[in-house]
Amino acid sequence: MSGKNIVVAGATGAVGIEILKVLEKRKFPVNNIRLLASKRSLGNKLTFRGEEIKVEELTKDSFKGMDIALFSAGGSRSLEYAPISAKNNCVVVDNSSAFRMDEKVPLVIPEINPEDIKNHQGIIANPNCSTIILLMGIYPIYQLTPIDRIIVSTYQAASGAGAQAMQELIDQSEAYLHHKTIEKNIFPHQIAFNLFSHNTPIDENGYNTEEIKMVKEVRKILHNPDIKVTATCVRVPVLRAHSESVSLELQNRLGLNQIREAINQFSGARVVDDREKNYFPMPIEASGLDDVLVGRIRYDECFNNGLAMFIAGDQLLKGAALNAVQIAEKLL
Amino acid sequence: MSGKNIVVAGATGAVGIEILKVLEKRKFPVNNIRLLASKRSLGNKLTFRGEEIKVEELTKDSFKGMDIALFSAGGSRSLEYAPISAKNNCVVVDNSSAFRMDEKVPLVIPEINPEDIKNHQGIIANPNCSTIILLMGIYPIYQLTPIDRIIVSTYQAASGAGAQAMQELIDQSEAYLHHKTIEKNIFPHQIAFNLFSHNTPIDENGYNTEEIKMVKEVRKILHNPDIKVTATCVRVPVLRAHSESVSLELQNRLGLNQIREAINQFSGARVVDDREKNYFPMPIEASGLDDVLVGRIRYDECFNNGLAMFIAGDQLLKGAALNAVQIAEKLL
Question: Which of A298, B18, B227, B298 could disulfide-link B321, Cβ–Cβ 3.0 to 4.6 Å?
Answer without folding.
Answer: B18
